[in-house]
Automatic annotation (TrEMBL), chain A:
Membrane topology listed for this record: Multi-pass membrane protein
GO cellular component: plasma membrane
The protein, known as: ABC transporter permease
GO MF annotations in UniProt: ABC-type transporter activity
Keyword hit for Cell membrane: yes
PANTHER family: MEMBRANE COMPONENT OF ABC TRANSPORTER YHHJ-RELATED, MULTIDRUG ABC TRANSPORTER PERMEASE YBHS-RELATED
Record has Zinc as a keyword: no
Species name: Flagellimonas sediminis
Keywords: Cell membrane, Membrane, Transmembrane, Transmembrane helix
Localization terms from the record: Cell membrane
């Protein structure tokens, strides 16, 4: 019997691995991924390199020292020109815009009458930069009226960041929770993609056996359950093979590309990996070396071993549960177009897990919602992985939650595979009719 | 007599639908057994139970004297009505896989496949994919895969549907050879005339029930009505002859061809004793036809169903 299961696994594996589209996908995907990364790096570089020039026509006695050039914005002072002349020369020199600061008695008055002339609507980062310069000047001016000197003002203006530490005294840094959740989210997202892709493989393989009418020949030799199990295992092995090839070839390609083109990867990780939202503030933090060290240390401190092992545990268990359902769906229908109504309810918990993960685990990895969804077996493979970068045990996921979620996954798998096998057993011999949910329930009792 | 398969009071229901009710059958060894009945009568349900694809709700089945169990799967060969092959798999590889699933070792399977491929002249198909073959070609391979592991019992569901006449004959001959070698064979079909001449035993299944079974010759004997089909070459005056015959015998229908002087008629005798009428007829002219009308399985089926329904 075990021998037959082995035969089925072997056939399913080979059928999948030899499939032309599978081979193409396996080879092309790393190229695509590397290509995407290169494209993003290239775009980021272009973005970085563009420096805008603003010409300034300053007719007031204020704002003489304030416009300091930065990486993205430099300034050119225009003197002794009329506004029209200044506009013309700005256009002729193809500068980004002209800032006209008119004459006036007070900073307040001058600022109110200032205009920025540009060809098109100005970029918001440019206006923000200019506005902050004016705001600072205005604030200083108002405080001066209240009797605060510019030296005093400078000392007041000194930037401040709150110091962070964990209870056991280690200094912690801002944003690290988000980074951790983001890494966990990456793993969770990968699990969702794998479940949907390889579950789909299982489903199509079942449908193929039905439409080619070989199914009855086979189940006169082996039990339907064996066939289903062999299919699920064979396809997951094919998936893991593909996954392994991807990781190896992508890392080889990437390091080759990096060596050849000499692209600075740290520039990449600074700009492109940070999503908008909670991370947005990150890039404005002063890139102090000590902080960078802290981040590197924290990221290295993430329990990668636990994370990778858990990834495989949760992938395998989650995949087993979902692909059993996929197999049952494949058995219930005659062709792929009929699967839509059944697939939606499967994908829903997966999507829910991703959304709950990103919205609730990011902000509070150990809150009640995060805990609940990381225990519920249909979402736990994804949500638990998002929590795991914090480690297991103190400061991370309590060990009992980790073990309970795995236990629940195993129990759920046994339950679902039994139900799926019942539907599968009946469904594979039914032709020509698209079943309703009611009929599926009836099949469970045959 | 020795039986390859004995079913006792086998029943099977799917929800509210009764597929088999109380079926008892005895299938003798080394014969061809016809499981006949219209579509939906329960034939395939019964066969699936023998193949242990599904299980009966009640009743017992014995294979070769032992209670049917998974170990018997390797002794049964089954060609289902819905039969197919993996389209994108190579012929040889696929046949090897299916043979191994039936419990053959890889080495044995290869050897036997070689033998059968040579025998049916398809040796050069080994590396072709199924999608490159015609339907008839694929059916040859399905047949080989069914018989390859030399099962004691072969089951063919709708065996000749979809076969072209040439392939059907090739397969028919191979089945007869297998029977000579001692294999027991079950044909299940709703096209009774297609297997009637091959079957020694039949069972008629109708609406989940067995309505009749036994040796085909016995059944036919039991169902024949002593009706004879007679053709007589007469000298003259056929009408008078006909009249005198009608006085003595129960003439069902008659037809006189004056030009060719041929008198054709059907007559029903009180018993299967034919001496009296033959003596009588031989004095009247030249007898050129005297056939007993034997009912076909189809006729018997319809008659049995009618009797049953009228009896209710």
């Amino acid at each position: 019997m075990a021998n037959k299961l082995g035969l089925i696994i072997r056939r399913e594996y080979l059928a999948k691995v030899r499939n032309r589209s599978f081979i193409v996908m396996t080879i092309l995907s790393p190229l695509l991924i590397v290509g995407m990364i290169l494209l993003i790096a290239y775009l980021a570089k272009i973005n970085d390199n563009e420096t805008r020039v603003i010409s300034i026509l300053n007719e007031s006695q204020f704002f003489n020292q304030e416009f300091k050039p930065s990486k993205s914005l430099t300034f050119v002072q225009l003197d002794n020109l009329t506004l029209e002349q200044a506009k013309d020369s700005t256009n002729a020199l193809e500068y980004y815009g002209l800032l006209h600061i008119p004459e006036g008695d007070t900073v307040e008055e001058v600022a109110r009458a200032t205009y920025l002339f540009t060809k098109d609507n100005p970029n918001s980062s440019v206006t923000q930069k200019l506005e902050s310069i004016f705001q600072r000047q205005l604030r200083q001016d108002r405080l001066k009226k209240l009797g605060v000197s510019s030296d005093q003002f400078s000392s007041v203006e000194a930037p401040f960041e709150i110091n962070l530490a964990t209870f056991d005294g280690e200094r912690s840094i801002k944003g690290i929770n988000e980074i951790k959740a983001f890494i966990g989210g990456g793993f969770g997202y990968a699990i969702m993609m794998f479940i949907i892709i390889y579950g789909g493989f299982v489903m199509r393989s079942v449908i193929e056996e039905k439409t080619s009418r070989i199914i009855e020949v086979i189940i006169s030799s082996v039990k339907p359950f064996q066939l289903m199990l062999g299919k699920i295992i064979g396809n997951s092995l094919a998936g893991l093979t593909q996954f392994t090839i991807w990781i190896i070839s992508a890392s080889v390609l990437l390091s080759l590309v990096v060596m050849i083109l000499g692209i600075d990867l740290s520039a990449l990780s600074g700009d492109t990996n940070m999503p908008a939202g909670p991370m947005g503030g990150m890039s404005q933090l002063a890139p102090m070396d000590s902080d960078m060290m802290m981040y590197t240390k924290e990221i290295l401190d993430i329990p990668w071993g636990i994370l990778v092992i858990s990834f495989f545990i949760y992938f395998v268990l989650g995949y087993l549960i979902y692909s059993s359902i996929y197999a049952a769906i494949g058995a219930a229908v005659d062709n792929e177009t009929d699967t839509q109504q059944f697939i939606f309810p499967i994908i829903m918990p997966l999507m829910l897990a991703i959304y709950v993960g990103f919205f609730s685990v990011f902000s509070n990895p150990h809150g009640p919602i995060a805990v609940g969804f990381s225990l519920f077996p249909l979402t736990s493979p994804i949500v638990m992985l998002m929590r795991l970068p914090g480690g297991i045990g103190e400061g991370g996921v309590p060990l009992w939650q980790f073990l309970l979620s795995i236990f629940l996954l195993i129990v759920t798998f046994l339950g679902i595979v039994t139900l799926a096998a019942k539907i599968y057993r009946v469904g594979i011999l039914m032709y020509g009719k698209k079943p309703t949910y009611k009929e599926l329930v009836k099949w469970l009792r045959y | 007599m020795d039986h390859i398969l004995v079913a006792k009071n086998v029943s099977k229901t799917y929800g509210n639908y009764t597929a088999l009710s109380n079926i008892s059958l005895e299938i003798p060894k080394n014969c061809i057994y016809g499981l006949l009945g219209p579509n939906g009568a329960g034939k395939t349900s019964f066969i699936r139970i023998i193949n242990q694809i599904t299980h009966q709700d009640a009743g017992e089945i014995f294979f070769n004297g032992e209670r049917l169990s998974p170990k018997h799967i390797s002794q049964i060969g089954y060609l289902p009505e819905e039969r197919g092959l993996y389209k994108s798999m190579k012929v040889g590889e696929q046949a090897l896989y299916l043979a191994q699933l039936k419990g053959l070792s890889k080495h044995d399977a290869k050897e036997k496949l070689k033998f059968w491929f040579e025998r049916l002249n398809i040796g050069d198909w080994w590396n072709k994919k199924i999608q490159e073959l015609s339907k008839g070609m694929a059916q040859k391979i399905q047949f080989i895969v069914t018989v390859l592991h030399e099962p004691k019992l072969l089951i063919f569901d709708e065996p000749f549907s979809g076969f072209d006449p040439i392939n059907a004959n090739i397969i028919k001959d191979e089945i007869l050879k297998l029977k000579e070698q001692g294999t027991s064979i079950i044909f299940s079909t709703h096209r009774m005339e297609s297997v009637e001449e091959l079957c020694e035993y039949i069972a008629l299944i109708h609406k989940s029930e067995k309505i009749l079974d036994g040796k085909l010759a016995d059944i036919k004997n039991a169902y024949k009505d002593n009706i004879f089909d007679v053709g007589l070459q007469v000298e003259e005056n056929g009408e008078a002859l006909m009249k005198s015959l009608a006085d003595k015998f129960n003439i069902l229908s008659s037809n006189l061809d004056r030009q060719d002087r041929q008198l054709d008629f059907k007559v029903q005798l009180p018993s299967s004793h034919t001496g009296d009428i033959l003596r009588e007829l031989s004095t009247m002219g030249n007898l050129y036809r005297f056939d007993e009308t034997i009912p076909s399985a189809n006729d018997i089926f319809i008659q049995t169903v009618n009797n049953k329904e009228n009896g209710k």
